[in-house]
Amino acid sequence: MDNSNIVGVLKQSQIFDGLGEGDLKKIAVGCIEQAFPMGTTIIEENDPPKKTLYFVKSGEMTITSSQVMEDGESTDESIITTLGAGDAFGEIALVDQEPHSATVRTISDSTIFLVSANFLDSLCEQDPRIGFIVYRNIAKLICKRLRLSNFSTKNFWIQD
Q1: pLDDT at 143 over 80
Q2: CA distances (Å), 85 to each of 10, 55, 61, 127, 135, in order?
Q3: Which domain holds residue 75?
Q4: Is there a contact between 17 and 23 (Cβ–Cβ < 8 Å)?
Q5: Which pLDDT value is given to residue 81?
Q6: Is 45 part of a structural domain of the chain?
Q7: Quick one: pLDDT band at residue 3, thresholds 50, 70, 90?
Q8: CATH number of the CATH domain containing 98
């Protein structure tokens, strides 16, 4: 596969903000392309961590989460957000190695690049500058998503 195609997708992701073309080419070496038809569940909420970081090349997917009632039963899924080209997911489980916090499902035919945690960790050990930038950007992405979640929760309770 042509790495320039992969580098183009990685450039769109905020996880790689601050990395140069050469750095992105190093990351592209570890990317595996996979196609998923519409309606495919890629990650299921509460599944063990897949130790993979995902980047959307094309298509769209939703991130959803179930609400748990006091009796422990789950209610319908709530859409947290929709992802498209350049967006990343799987970063929370990648960092904390805990079960996945949401379900990711394709809503159109989609193509994704997967990067294993082992490859990413090895690259970060070889080049700590890349590791610092990538994990700082992952932290920023998680914080951004947490703030959006907090904002949505506040607005839900105010309007309830």
Answers
A1: yes
A2: 10, 8, 10, 27, 21
A3: 3-117+128-145
A4: no
A5: 84
A6: yes
A7: confident
A8: 2.60.120.10
